[in-house]
Amino acid sequence: PTVAVVLTVLLACVHAGYRRGMPSAGAAPGGLARVGLIAGAMVAHALLQPFTGFVPTATLLFAAGAAAMGNTRPARALGVGAAVAVVMALVFAGGLGVPLPMGAWTR
Q: Rounded distance, CA 97 to CA 1, Å?
């Protein structure tokens, strides 16, 4: 997991540097602020997932990613994130037989 996080942050920094000369979209934070928001959300997801479970942390990760990309509707992002997280949890647990951490919800 550490290697994946480091590679993701490095690729995001390269991407932010590449897009520096391009116009930003709407109210989205630019450059390193965008990278920082996404990287911080990924770290929070990794740290909180054992305690709160996959669905809540994946929902917040999706909403943070949407905010970093310029989304101006946080409630909608949370709703879509929750729907995607629930479907992913069902596919992994039910279809593939790979249970995801559910945190305090199963204790």
A: 21
